[in-house]
């Protein structure tokens, strides 16, 4: 066919196909007598660069009337007309791929080329030595090592920044207070990187808060005073007595070697874990070891009582301070009379001491007493009046096995109780017939009352009516047997 007719025929066919939406437009046909250029293949997928995958897949859109050949790493091309070519497994390193396309007939081929690096086996991770943490230094030296011969270099990153080449020891500068991290990774000959190894530390360049202390001041008689101190952020302290050499110390600190009367001092310095020092604090006091007179407990509760309150009269030197301690509790300032309330049952001890104006402590006086609130065992009534009874002063027999009982109280019909003893009527004669109740309670030495024992009976002092004869013998007669019949109140005898 004549060349001009062929070109016109091809244009007509391509125009129809494009209208149908099934092919991609190709460049215009070459001038008559020259080869038609083949469009460059449109590759839709290829391996990443670099990649750890050992298989490479290339995908492209085949064009009509086009033949394709593929070549890997410069090897002889092979036909690959299916739109996809897979290679593998590939070795680590740089690889190249070429895809050659050529229209059928007289045409000029086109070639797609792509190079990428396979880095499938990362080197071993380095071993990073720990660094001191926390630290006050803004410059930190990071040492690391690697036993994997595949690791030809290393890269470092500070606090998530981009990795950069580094070698051991790697010196970094971190000036912002807080936590910092250096990540180190190995790199092999193909540029593959290992899993990073890391080391972290905390930069602390802030001194602890000023020392706060509590201890002796003014005058005191304590030859081994205790000083407590603290400073936020501090991990260690040193103490200096009377300007002497500082020694390591902890709170609370008992000051040594101050037995000589006169002025003394203790200076405390605080340090954090990295050596930052706080402003020191100093306690000043004067030692005076002459004690005041011993106070005396003049009056107080009985040795044994059931009262849960206690009052003490205490004599003391008015020039000083009176201090009291109850049952081994803390010493507290007090004044006479010394009063306590709400005390529990059991033994109690009050200690009193004097403290003069310079802090000297006197000898101690003390008083011990027992609070007994345990009720005794109730008594038992073993005998009393029958019911009914006409006795207006009946006797009751009662007793108890409780050896703590020293007396009894008795009450009649809920009235006020009076002291009483067994077999003695403690009240006036009864005057009202009817139901009566007698109660007796045991009392121990301190006045604790037992539960009550009771006895109830009916008092009946009303004489029955005179009997009425309903039959009787004649006033005279010869019968030697006399029969009388009469009526009387039930129960009358």
Overview of this protein structure:
With 493 residues, this protein is mainly beta. 4% of the residues lie in helices and 42% in strands. The protein contains one helix and 41 strands. The strands form 13 sheets. The protein has a five-stranded mixed β-sheet, with no helix packed on it. It has a five-stranded mixed β-sheet with strand order 27-33-32-29-30, with no helix packed on it. A four-stranded antiparallel β-sheet has the order 5-4-7-9, with no helix packed on it. Strand 38 (434-444) and strand 39 (449-459) form a beta hairpin.
Please provide a brief summary of the model.
This protein is mostly beta strands and 493 residues long. The protein is 4% helix and 42% strand.
Properties at a glance:
493 residues, mainly beta, 5-stranded mixed β-sheet, 1 helix, disordered N terminus
The number of helical runs is 1
Distance, first to last CA: 168 Å
Strand content: 35-45%
Radius of gyration: 58 Å
């Amino acid at each position: 066919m004549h060349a001009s007719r062929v070109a016109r025929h091809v244009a007509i066919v391509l125009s129809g196909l494009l209208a149908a939406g099934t092919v991609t437009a190709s460049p215009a046909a070459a001038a008559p007598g020259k080869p038609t250029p083949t469009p460059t293949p449109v590759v839709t997928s290829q391996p990443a660069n670099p990649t750890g995958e050992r298989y490479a897949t290339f995908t492209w859109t085949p064009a009509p009337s086009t033949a394709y050949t593929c070549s890997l790493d410069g090897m002889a091309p092979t036909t690959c007309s299916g739109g996809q070519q897979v290679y593998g497994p590939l070795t680590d390193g740089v690889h190249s791929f070429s895809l050659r396309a050529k229209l059928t007939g007289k045409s000029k081929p086109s070639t797609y080329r792509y190079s990428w690096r396979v880095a499938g086996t990362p080197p071993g991770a380095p071993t990073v030595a720990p660094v001191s943490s926390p630290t006050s230094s803004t410059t930190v030296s990071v040492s690391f090592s690697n036993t994997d011969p595949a690791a030809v270099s290393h890269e470092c990153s500070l606090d998530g920044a981009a990795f950069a080449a580094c070698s051991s020891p790697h010196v970094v500068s971190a000036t912002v207070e807080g936590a910092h991290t250096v990540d180190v990774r190995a790199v092999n000959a193909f540029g593959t990187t290992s899993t990073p190894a890391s080391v972290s530390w905390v930069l602390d360049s802030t001194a602890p808060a000023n020392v706060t202390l509590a201890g002796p001041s003014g005058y005191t008689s304590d030859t081994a005073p205790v000083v407590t101190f603290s400073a936020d952020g501090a991990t260690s302290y040193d103490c200096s007595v009377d300007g002497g050499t500082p020694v390591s110390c902890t709170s609370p600190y008992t000051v040594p070697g101050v037995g000589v009367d006169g002025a003394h001092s203790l200076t405390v310095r605080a340090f954090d874990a990295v050596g930052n020092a706080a402003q020191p604090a100093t306690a000043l006091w004067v030692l005076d070891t002459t004690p005041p007179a011993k106070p005396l407990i003049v009056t107080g509760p009985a040795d044994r009582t059931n009262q849960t309150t206690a009052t003490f009269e205490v004599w003391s030197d008015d020039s000083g301070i009176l201090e009291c301690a109850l049952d081994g509790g803390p010493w507290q300032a007090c004044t006479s009379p010394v009063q306590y309330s709400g005390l529990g049952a059991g033994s109690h001890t009050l200690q009193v001491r004097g403290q003069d104006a310079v802090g000297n402590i006197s000898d101690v006086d003390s008083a011990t007493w027992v609070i007994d609130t345990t009720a005794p065992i109730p008594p038992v009534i073993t005998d009393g009046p029958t019911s009914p009874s006409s006795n207006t002063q009946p006797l009751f027999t009662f007793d108890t096995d409780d050896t703590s009982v020293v007396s009894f109280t008795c009450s009649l019909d809920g009235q006020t109780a009076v002291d009483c003893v067994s077999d003695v009527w403690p009240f006036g004669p009864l005057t009202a017939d009817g139901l009566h109740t007698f109660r007796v309670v045991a009392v121990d030495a301190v006045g604790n009352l037992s539960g009550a024992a009771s006895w109830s009976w009916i008092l009946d002092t009303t004489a029955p009516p005179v009997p009425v004869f309903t039959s009787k013998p004649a006033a005279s007669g010869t019968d030697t047997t006399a029969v009388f019949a009469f009526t009387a109140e039930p129960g009358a005898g």
